[in-house]
Amino acid sequence: MVSRGEPTRTLVLGGVRSGKSGHGESLLRDHARVRYVATGPTRSSDADWVARVAAHRDRRDDRYTTVETIDVAGALRAEPQTPTLVDDLGNWLAAQLDAVGGWDDDAVDIDDVRSGLCRAIADVTGDLVIISPEVGLSLVPPTPAGRRFQDELGVLNEAVAAVCDRVVLIVAGRVVELPAPPTRAAAPTAAAAPAAAAVAAEAPAPTPTAPGSAPAATFDGPVDPTDAEIFDTIVPPDFGVASAARERQLTLTKPPGALGRLEDIGVWLSSCQGICPPRPLTAPTVVVFAGDHGVARSGVSAFPPEVTAQMVANIASGGAAVNVLARRAGATVRVVDMSVDADTAPEISGYKVRRGSGDLRVTDALTLAEAREALAAGRAIADQLVDSGADLLIGGEMGIGNTTPATVLIGALTRREPVEIVGRGTGIDDAGWIRKTAAIRDGMRRARRHVHDPLSLLAAVAGADLTALAGFLAQAAVRRTPVILDGMVVTAAAMVANELAPGAVRWWLAGHRSVEPAHTIALEHLDLDPVLDLSMRLGEGSGALAALPIVASSVDILTSMATFDEAGVSDRDAEPAGVVTTAAT
Ligand SMILES: O=C(O)c1ccc[n+]([C@@H]2O[C@H](COP(=O)([O-])O)[C@@H](O)[C@H]2O)c1
Ligand SMILES: Cc1cc2nc[nH]c2cc1C
Question: How far apart are the first and last CA of the chain?
Fold first, then answer.
């Protein structure tokens, strides 16, 4: 395997003594330099272990540099470009379970380290081979610790496979190439297909009316929710195009890097579009997912729940902040009633799952069937917009009380204490803050047992609006369409979306940092750096829309600035006039 500009991430699975390490090494034989990340100790008092390590070492030649660490994510992040062999994930997992005392305590999980590892794997820029044992084919171990290891390794292998380009299984010395799951990048999902076809026929363009207004064209429902939670492997934005865009930035008439973050955003957008220079954005589209929440009846918001339906009508008729900001930025706004506790216009309620989601303090917000329906709706909406030409998507939301479920999701997935993350939402007073903190505590208690299962987590505490948002954001990544995230509520849904579709985060840009404390924690968790920090706390998609003109400008820079050659401007390596250099004697 020689790097051809595009890195290849290969997961090599196999049983004990199957030849998996040897095969992994053979994949990197053409590289002049290979880093060997050893996840188990290379020195030990166990003679058999030492002999195994020595056998592995003898097979490798002096092209290898050995790094002994269980911080594989850290090692990959330190040198993402270096061709690397990681051997193996079994030792890594054992060390992680040791670190958290998780061998015999199912309540302790390693989800964060596993996600961190997957994100680091998704971000490598050089060839990577990861060796992992496949122990799921043997007997179910007789001890709790053995069963825990076997179960965790199954989950880990599946998660790592999702961010690798190839997965091979070594059996009896033979290499079996495991097929990738079918890709839906070019076509609507099976779940979304019927509705997408119906809307495509009715609404060929995403902007039948002026930017900023809610177009008359409707989203159709219902959708087939079967397997709504199963997403295709996310293909990252094109690394080769990113390199070309970075090169182009250096040719433009400015000191290298002088446009700072604007340059990075242009490079990202170029890599999302797979072309350099990128195409100007022509059809950015915001979808505002609206819903009511049972918990809002218990005094966790400064406003009454009736405001949700009233604001939905306001957005539909073009009078909300989201409409004003969208008009300025040239974006189209659509509003979708997922679970508003009132009847709304038929053109916005085609996907409605129910009236109001359940009170997360005491009951599931949705049934699993409703959660699948909401996820499928979000996915179908993303598909319809991409199919009809949207070239950038923004997820927005409107729902009195929705900062409570969003904070519960973030708290549960990042294991924070409620008081660290609770914010003032629409502006609750101190008494409301105390009620909200207690509601978040109760919701997190109910959420805790679902943190390993994104679909049941959404059903337990999120509600139909946030669940549809999660489906929308993940499906945008499946369809290789860039997204600008809005505030805390959208980012909470994004966290779950990235659990459903690992690597989806690479298609998302954080538009802004909301004043909600949970937002900063969620952004850190996703490793996202917001474009703006304007002390906003509105939702609707407003923060993302405020960032959109900056994103559009970053594209213009790459498309329209003159190069040094074109403008006849001297590049920095050119010799200044009048300076004569003489050869050294
Ligand atoms: O996303 C955010 O950062 C955000 C922060 C504060 C408020 N909101 C919006 O305010 C509403 C929820 O606030 P609350 O106090 O009713 O939970 C909902 O309609 C959100 O769009 C949104
Ligand atoms: C008026 C109003 C507008 C909103 N937009 C998003 N959340 C909101 C909450 C309220 C209360």
Answer: 46
**pTM for the full predicted model:** 0.68
Confidence band, pLDDT 50/70/90 cuts, at residue 523: very high
Q: Which residue has the tokens 């490079």?
A: 267
If you measure from the C-alpha of residue 337 to the centroid of ligand 1, how many angstroms do you get, rounded to a whole number? 16
- 293-298-300 Cα angle (round to 5): 80
Pick the CATH number of 9-45+55-178 from 3.40.50.300, 3.20.20.450, 1.10.10.60, 3.30.70.270: 3.40.50.300
Interval 548-585: pLDDT, tens = 999 999 999 999 999 999 999 998 877 766 565 554 43
Q: Above 70 in pLDDT, residue 184? A: no
What pLDDT score was predicted for residue 181?
Answer: 58
Residue 404: per-residue pLDDT: 98
Residue with the two structure tokens 């409605």: 352
CATH label, 239-560, candidates 3.90.1570.10, 1.20.58.1000, 3.30.70.100, 3.40.50.10210: 3.40.50.10210
Q: How far apart are CA 295 and CA 585, in angstroms?
A: 82
Nearest alpha-carbon partner for 509 in 268, 267, 233, 240: 268
Mean of all residue pLDDT scores within the chain: 88
Best mutation site among 523, 538, 545 for ligand 1, i.e. most ligand atoms within 8 A of its Cβ? 538
Marked catalytic residue, from 25, 134, 370, 540: 540
CA distance 103 to 81: 34
CB 59 within 8 A of CB 25: yes
